[in-house]
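User: My advisor, Dr. K., asked me to get a structural model of this assembly before our group meeting. I'm new to this, so sorry if the format is off. These are the inputs:
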Amino acid sequence: MTVTIHLKPHKEESVLRFHPWIFSGAIARIDGKPAEGDLVDLVDNKGNFLAIGHYQIGSIAVRVLSFQQEPVDESFFRKKIRSAYQERIGIGLVPQPSNNIYRLVHGEGDGLPGLIVDVYGSTAVIQAHSVGMHCVRTLIAGILVQEIDEIKNVYYKSEGTLPFKANLGTEDGYLIGCESDSTAIENGLKFQIDWQKGQKTGFFIDQRENRMLLEQYSKGRNVLNMFCYTGGFSCYAMRGNAGLVHSVDSSAKAIELTNQNIALNFGQDTRHTAFAVDAFKFLENIHDTYDLIILDPPAFAKHKSALHNALRGYQKLNAKAFEQIKPGGILFTFSCSQVVNKEQFRLAVFSAAAESKRNVRILHQLTQPADHPINIYHPEGEYLKGLVLYVE
Ligand code: SAH
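Assistant: The format is fine. Below is the predicted structure of the whole assembly, which you can bring to the meeting.
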């Protein structure tokens, strides 16, 4: 039997503006007893149909899949995945011999809240952020191999992203196929992707275009790539003919990956060195060494409650970089915290510049690429913010 969720008066307004999240506080009553991950109908306080979505216990109680009365079944998901794939073809991202790394499904941005699908050559990695998407993982995996010829293996990686309250006993592993070639290509550069143990689905695909821009600025410069993880920015800087490239990450595993990726593309090129140290410590002793610095730290705030400290963190980090960078240097600085918006991030960087008393000009304002689209009704989806700055 369909479960119906009745919203409190006026709480339908955001749904009528197609916002895909219903917070638990908006719910007046629930007819039926939904299990986590069940499909539920949403109605306003007069009983008018509003939407259908996945139910979950927590602050976001419903993630909307459709604003129409339609079955959310295999053909629904097939249609959505086809449309997401067509969009990636439409923007010229696939198929491309020089690139087989892309995000195929970007949650709310592709009308599938709670679902991420990243593709690395013949392997797709599914990451569920909602119990509802966890429940349909096998269905999704089947659709992926049927719809996209190149996809032969589907790995499920959701241990770290599903709510622990649901007690799902989820295990990461292959839903279809098995371990295969884990070297994939981004813009002609090879990367070893560790989707089993790596962060996110194994790679930060969202920085692809920003890495391309960095390549253009690298010629002859001494580049410092802070928070390097797989060494993505470092590889582009190397290809862009940087004078030297130093990669820094506090994780030894990340440094190992970076060294592997550099070797994969550039052999034993002595221009590159990687350091497994804390970023803040490293920044203490590098005065006037670098004229191109990349700051791409992990999300300093995962929740609104941490916003204030996160902004302080961004300010402190950027102030250090401004103090140390050579005159005429270029700073690529990023924030991937969803709760920090563009204006707040810019203000933190502005405060850092003022603190260091350097003259700073904004050259580019960066964001996420088109395979990480932002649903216009869900502004929260705009999470990656970057600034390219000229430091006089
Ligand atoms: N720039 C990367 C992604 C960075 S992810 C890319 O393009 O792929 C953030 C990285 O910061 C992680 O690898 C994590 O290990 C590292 N990290 C977290 N805290 C750190 C710290 N205090 N000092 C140095 N690295 C840190």
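One thing worth pointing out at the meeting: The chain has three domains: 3-66, 74-187, 204-391.

User: Perfect, thanks a lot.
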